[in-house]
Specification:
- The complex is a heterotrimer of chains A (171), B (863) and C (317).
- With 171 residues, chain A is of the alpha+beta class.
- Chain A has a domain at 30-130: Alpha-Beta Plaits, CATH 3.30.70.
- Chain A contains four helices and six strands; from the N terminus they run H-E-H-E-E-H-E-E-H-E.
- Chain B has 863 residues and is of the alpha/beta class.
- Among the domains of chain B are: 3-95, Ubiquitin-like (UB roll) (Roll), CATH 3.10.20; 346-492, no CATH class; 761-862, Beta Barrel (Barwin-like endoglucanases).
- Helix content of chain B is 27%, strand content 18%.
- Chain B has a six-stranded parallel sheet with strand order 17-22-21-18-19-20, with helices on both faces. Chain B has a six-stranded mixed barrel with strand order 31-35-32-34-33-36. Chain B has a five-stranded mixed sheet with strand order 2-1-5-3-4, with helices on both faces.
- Chain B starts with a strand and ends with a strand.
- Chain C has twelve helices and no strands.
- In chain C, helix 4 runs antiparallel to helix 5 and helix 5 (133-164) packs antiparallel against helix 8.
- The chains are: A alpha+beta (171), B alpha/beta (863), C mainly alpha (317).
- Chains in contact: A-B, A-C.
- Chains A and B meet through helix 2, strand 2, strand 3 and strand 6 of A and strand 6 of B.
Chain lengths: 171, 863, 317
């Protein structure tokens, strides 16, 4: 009983507290860099697409709103033939970014993507791909992976020896 | 049965197993790499370490490899022992020191045995800070990608390729940590079973190159239980598709047919489905044509399902139905059926072929016609002298010890064929004779020739524990009869007869005229309309006969999924769903009825063939099962077709269907978003107990005929099949799928010698005449698979092979051109003179566009 | 102007005023709640967001008026009407000033209690006719809740009637020109207010609609204007209970300086403020707590209050 009255008194005091509301859009709120907003696909330091179309983001997506098709270029580099995110379904949970082994898919501090037509919320690869590296500069998956691609021969990755000579008889 | 104690609990195991098998048989998990149910143990990877105790009083024990420990009565091990667990984790950690950071770009990812085992061992973080060893890769042909960096040196690939598949162009090279698995130099792998390396390899050293063009992870694949359409053996497959497009085929374990493996034609032939016929819906035209017809003849097809053929038979009537086999095949198939029913010889399944110790191959080329038979014969030859090892107390599973004990000993294999078939490399004796002489040779053996090869074979067969005679419909009626006599004359001798196409035996059992008779009906004016079901008539009759048929027929209605010469000549084309978009039943060469299920719903409203035929007549079938039911009621011998798989109304104990998609299947709300925001409902499948979506049971089936994929928690690779088997490597839970339709009734086989002699027109004494024999090639001779991209690369150049002696006689030279006249048509091919063909024959590739019209051994005139 | 015509004019004005006030309640409640929670509330539509209710109403009008195929059609349509009509009827006996009143019935208080009880029919029927489990549970809860809280409410007002000596509401107001009954009847005042909140199905007594457990209780299946009628019913209930508290315990129109009508409105709004305030503070009761409060606390207390009032009156006489 007393506690109820105390609570009522506490709440009454809030009538004269200054509201915390930010009057968006006249007033812009501070969005931290790790905000989970619009999803982008980034590029590696060499300007190539980071996405290797491994399907982990689409598997991790709880809303099943990511679909893609993998393909290979003539040098064996994997990339997405097409990549589609249906933002009308996306819940911006960031699981795709967590799942991504190449830092390709990233969530950005942009949330102003309202549309009057739902179909405009379907972003294809050309809508998603940016020209920069996003939040994780300097990482190039193919410099750590064992496969060879254009510009990185066999054994040319970080922490790799030259290909062995299998015909050598040295101990 | 021995009782073993695992972690203090007693389990019963079969006699003669090792402890790894004992563990897996009882549904427990123990990681392993180098052991494979079909290949046995070598103890190379050290991953299945357990603590082995001497007896009850032994508390110390010692670390031992489960796969090298026999499961004797009272064997006591601990899997959960902390030291053993840590040992296994360390082994994985060592293996992973050089394993590249590749999983995202590796095609094995998601169904990788190494991933599963690493997780199972609890190894989660790489501590090794030093440089990784790397290799250069090799080009291994259009089927496999080679990525040696990923290798963990389990030796499975080389053991499969050399010991099981009998390949010789692949080996292990180098020393210490430079061990390399590959070829001496870049090049296409020679073995017809190379595709299995992708499944055998526990990680991503060998991966499917065809699927890499449009790669999809296993968890995203929509899969269904299916049967291979590319030959008559009926191997079980799991085709996988994504976005309604075929991506990959993997083997589906069936202990009675193909076991774990597939041939490359079966594995890579799926690419034909990319090149299907697109045409206007002309069902009204077809119906009008049928209304105005003076008489309708229907030609079925051995590559169409049983129910489509039966539907056509109902539509046109039995008397106007042709099974769609050439005269030669029809005759041979009928002979085979009568031999089968007579019970003269024991008809073996493909799995039973592997148990034979003396094999006689008569008149066929298993490698080109039914490749998995080649594989089965190789297994038979490998396992035949196993007694030697058993006498030395070496268990069958101890693979390396067995190989050393046998010291190259093999079973006895005898071959009589018109050309040197590939199996000849492991044959005891082989002769190249004309097709007619194959039968003569067989009779020589059975009648006990006094001397020579025939008598030697006769003696060996009599001594054998499990003798076997192998022939095929393509060898002709007379050879089949002779082979059955031979098998019948030896007690306990088995007979195995191949069929050229997936449903040859099914249509032969349905009965009907040969194509020739059907064509005669048209040409005599009794009928003016022809319905052709998924059959390219140009492949089954000579070119002039085909041209005359096209000329004489008023309306030719063709149902097919691919463009052929017949569809080009058709007046009305009714496109039908491909094999991967329809459900049905096939009857394989040993009369095993097996059901296959659509992977994807029909595209663009192109229905299955049976429903097209239903619309042409006034039938009321709601689904293909109705046709099968009607067939079974009409023809009791087909009753087994109904038992072969559960009906469409089957539901699991949770009252659910079986899901074709995995529970992890992704992109549901996005894959169609470029077309529509409405997220279309997954198409309903009223025809089968499977659902096209992920809704339904994932790990069900009590019925082994409807296993859509092998997957088990913690087992994402195909090794999950362990969990679906009663004992690892043996029968599936619920029995191996398929029901054999025919049983021996004990009646005498119809031995119509006059008829048999018709099969082989003898070359007249004239010097310019020679046997013209079509030779089936694994790549190129089969109608559907040759349309595939990868297989297309390996189709050999069309050449006519001839023995030097015959070449000289006919005045032909190597590299020249042979113009061959037969049945009123002429073909011309470059000549290859070689000793590997019989004298008096000229061998041309079967089913190549250049050799259309060569449907059976025939007599040709060299111009 | 004849008395009949005067009554008609008052009636129509009252009706219009009430409906306007109901719409205003949307804004009042949302702004007040926001203020309690350090927010701004609706501030975009019109000055200070004053047109927000209009936007809401337009939206409600535009919504598809969906009739569940499984519903009992006739009752489904009638139910929301019952709620609004009974509450509006109850207003007929509320005297705002000596002149501004529709009916000065001599059984005014009884009529109010009767109409308040009738209202529950609307809810129970809505729950039943929706033919949906959430709706039915909501309806059942409402019935039980009304039953449990009408008793203490009735007993509490009996004391007021004893003090005023009349069931006529204007008599009751006139009985407290200086000393309001809330001073004489503090316990009765509290009991009546709590029971009034429960009558209006307001937090913490909003179990019949309990969004978090019953979706929306008895109006789960309702949409568009039918749904709006339920909301109007609820807001009208708040206004009615506030008006009755004003009449019974806060001296109605009596007050110094300001005109009587203004005094009435000030007092009434104070009680409405109390309603919103309580909502901002208290979470919803659990069902057993609701029943315990009704039967084990309020009912005995109201009886004690009745007996005490009687005893004091006896002694005073």
């Amino acid at each position: 009983m007393v506690s109820i009255l105390r609570s009522m008194w506490l709440m009454l005091k809030h009538l004269v507290v200054r509201p915390v509301t930010v009057r968006y859009p006249e007033q812009k709120a501070y969005i931290p860099p790790r905000w989970r907003g619009r999803i982008i696909l980034s590029r590696d330091p060499d300007g190539c697409e980071r996405c290797v179309a491994c399907y982990l983001c689409s598997a991790a997506c709880p809303a099943d709103c990511i679909s893609l098709q993998a393909t290979e270029d003539e040098h064996g580099r994997r990339y997405a033939e097409w990549f589609r995110i249906n933002f009308s379904r996306c819940i911006f949970c960031g699981f795709c970014e967590e799942a991504c082994p190449t830092y390709a898919i990233q969530l950005t501090p942009d949330f102003e993507m309202g549309e009057y037509d739902r179909s405009k919320l379907v972003y294809e690869k050309e809508d998603l791909l940016i020209s920069g590296q996003g939040k994780y500069p300097g990482y190039n998956f193919y410099h750590h992976s064992g496969v060879s691609v254009k510009g990185k021969p066999r054994g040319g990755a970080v922490d790799e020896t030259h290909p062995v000579d299998i015909r050598s008889l040295l101990p | 049965m021995p009782t073993v104690i695992i972690d203090g609990i007693e389990y019963e195991v079969e006699q003669g197993r090792n402890m790894l098998e004992a563990v897996l048989d009882n549904g427990l998990d123990l990681p392993y790499f180098c052991w494979h149910p079909a290949m046995g143990s070598v103890g190379a990877c050290r991953l299945c370490a357990v603590r082995l105790y001497r007896d009850e009083s032994d508390t110390q024990g010692k670390i031992a490899m489960a796969c090298m420990t026999p499961a004797n009565d009272g064997t006591r091990i601990s899997i959960q022992d902390p030291e053993a667990t840590e040992f296994r984790r360390c082994v994985v950690e060592w293996l992973m020191t050089n394993h590249p950071h590749d999983c995202p770009v590796c095609d094995e990812g998601g169904h990788c045995h190494l991933q599963d085992m690493t997780t199972m061992c609890g190894q989660t973080y790489r501590r090794f800070r030093f440089k990784k060893r790397t290799y250069t890769n090799q080009y291994l042909g259009p089927f496999l990608t080679h990525e040696m960096n990923r290798c963990i040196q389990c030796y499975r690939c080389v053991r499969f390729y050399r010991d099981l598949a009998g390949g010789r162009d692949f080996n292990v090279f180098g020393s210490r940590n430079r061990i390399y698995f590959g070829r001496q130099r870049d090049g296409v792998l020679e073995s017809e079973f190379s595709g299995n390396l992708a499944e055998v390899c526990p990680t991503g050293v060998f991966t499917d190159k065809t699927s890499a063009r449009h790669y999809t992870r296993k968890w995203d694949l929509r899969t269904a239980p299916s049967v291979c359409i590319h030959c008559g053996l009926g191997c079980n497959t799991i085709p996988g598709s994504r976005y309604n497009k075929m991506r990959r085929i993997e083997g589906r374990f069936n202990g009675d047919v193909n076991g774990y493996f597939l041939c490359d034609r079966g594995r890579y032939g799926y690419e034909f489905s990319y090149d299907t016929i697109r045409s206007e819906n002309a069902i009204d035209d077809a119906q009008n044509a049928l209304k105005e017809a003076k008489g309708v003849v229907g030609i079925g097809s051995p590559r169409a399902s049983l129910e489509s053929n039966y539907a056509l038979q109902k539509l046109v009537g039995v008397e106007h139905f042709s099974a769609g086999l050439s005269e030669f095949e029809q005759e041979a198939a009928e002979q085979y059926l009568s031999v089968f029913k007579s019970g003269t010889a024991q008809m073996l399944s493909l799995a039973e072929v592997e148990l034979a110790d003396v094999v006689v191959v008569l008149g066929i080329d298993p490698t080109g016609e039914a490749p998995m038979l080649d594989f089965a014969i190789r297994q038979a030859m490998r396992k035949a002298p196993m007694e030697v090892a058993r006498k030395l107390n070496i268990p069958d599973w101890d693979a390396n010890a067995v190989i050393n004990a046998l010291n190259g000993a093999k079973g006895k294999l005898y071959i009589a064929a018109p050309w040197s078939i590939k199996l000849q490399e492991i044959a005891t004796e082989a002769i190249n004779v004309t097709p007619a002489n194959v039968a003569v040779f067989a009779r020589d053996i059975s009648r006990g020739a006094v001397d020579g090869l025939a008598s030697g074979i006769s003696t060996e067969l009599a001594k054998a524990k499990k003798p076997l005679v192998v022939t095929g419909i393509s060898a002709g009626a007379d050879t089949i009869l002779a082979a059955s006599e031979l098998a019948g004359s030896i007690p306990g001798c088995g007979l195995f007869v191949t069929a050229p196409e997936a449903n040859t035996l099914g249509v032969a059992m349905l009965g009907g005229q040969s194509i020739r008779q059907a064509v005669d009906t048209i040409e005599s004016g009794q009928a003016d309309t022809l319905i052709v079901l998924e059959n390219d008539l140009a492949r089954r009759m000579s070119s002039p006969a085909f041209a005359s048929l096209v000329e004489n027929v008023k309306n030719m209605i063709v149902l097919d999924c691919i463009e052929t010469q017949t569809t080009r000549a058709a007046t009305t084309i009714l496109p039908v769903a491909t094999f991967f978009n329809s459900d049905g039943a096939f009857v394989n060469n040993e009369s095993r009825a097996q059901r296959y299920y659509a992977v994807d719903p029909p595209v663009e409203d192109i229905p299955a063939a049976w429903s097209r035929i239903r619309d042409l007549g006034d039938f009321t079938w709601a689904g293909y099962e109705d046709i099968l039911r009607e067939l079974a009621a009409d023809r009791p011998e087909f009753a087994g077709t109904l038992e072969a798989a559960p009906f469409a109304d089957w539901r699991s104990t949770a009252n659910r269907k079986i899901a074709r998609e995995t529970h992890r299947s992704s992109g549901r709300t996005s894959k169609d978003a470029n077309r529509t925001m409405r997220e279309p409902q997954p198409p309903d499948d009223a025809q089968t107990p499977l659902a096209f979506s992920m809704e339904g049971d994932q790990n069900p089936p009590a019925s082994s005929a409807v296993i859509p994929r092998f997957w088990w928690p913690g087992w994402n690779s195909n090794a999950a099949s362990n969990k679906y088997q009663k004992e690892v490597g043996a029968e599936l839970h619920g029995g191996n799928p398929g029901v054999r339709l025919l049983t021996a009734s004990g009646s005498e086989p119809e031995a119509d010698r006059d008829k048999a002699s018709v099969s082989y027109p003898q070359p007249a004494g004239e010097s310019k005449e020679i046997w013209l024999i079509p030779r089936p090639y694994i790549f190129g001779s089969e109608e559907l698979s040759r349309r595939g991209i990868a297989i297309g690369e390996l189709i050999p150049p069309p050449e006519a092979a001839i023995h030097p002696q015959s070449a000289q006689k006919l005045g032909l030279t190597d590299g020249g051109t042979a113009e061959l006249d037969f049945d009123g048509q002429t073909i011309s091919l470059p000549i290859r003179v070689e000793e590997s063909v019989a004298v008096g024959v000229i061998v041309v590739p079967m089913g190549f566009p250049e050799t259309y019209g060569v449907t059976s051994p025939t007599v040709a005139r060299v111009k | 102007m004849t008395p009949g015509l005067w009554t008609l004019v008052i009636g129509v004005c009252l009706l219009a005023g009430l409906l306007g006030l109901t719409t205003g309640m949307i804004w009042i409640e949302r702004r007040l709640l926001a203020q309690f929670q350090d927010r701004l509330g609706p501030n975009r539509v019109g000055p200070l967001g004053l047109f927000q209710p209009i936007a809401d109403i337009i939206k409600l009008f535009m919504k598809e008026d969906w009739m569940p195929p499984f519903a009992d059609k006739l009752i489904f349509v009638i139910a929301p009407g019952i709620i609004v009509v009974t509450v509006l009827l109850a207003f007929a006996v509320v005297p705002i000033t000596p002149f501004i009143k529709v009916s000065d019935a001599n059984v005014g208080l009884l009529f109010f209690l009767g109409m308040a009880s009738m209202g529950v029919y609307g809810i129970v029927l809505a729950g039943w006719a929706s033919n949906s489990k959430y709706s039915l549970i909501g309806g059942t809860r409402a019935a039980a809740q009304m039953l449990s809280y009408e008793l203490p409410m009735g007993l509490a007002v009996v004391s007021v009637v004893m003090l005023a000596g009349s069931l006529r509401l204007s008599d009751i107001v006139n009985a407290q020109p200086r000393l309001w009954f809330c001073v004489l009847q503090p316990l009765g005042f509290v009991i009546f207010t709590i029971a009034g909140i429960a009558e209006a199905r307001r937090t913490p007594f909003d179990l019949p609609e309990a969004d978090s457990e019953l979706i929306a209780g008895y109006h789960t299946e309702y949409s568009s204007m039918k749904f709006a009628l339920f909301f109007m019913g609820e807001y009208l209930d708040i206004i009615l209970v506030s008006a009755m508290v004003t009449v019974l315990y806060l001296g109605g129109w009596h007050g110094p300086l300001l005109p009587p009508a203004l005094w009435f409105i000030i007092k009434m709004f104070a009680v409405i403020f109390l309603f919103v305030w309580v909502r901002a503070v208290l979470p919803r009761y659990r069902y057993d707590q609701l029943m315990t409060l009704g039967w084990k606390i309020l009912l005995p207390l109201s009886i004690v209050n009745l007996v005490a009032t009687g005893a004091v009156m006896l002694v005073m006489r």
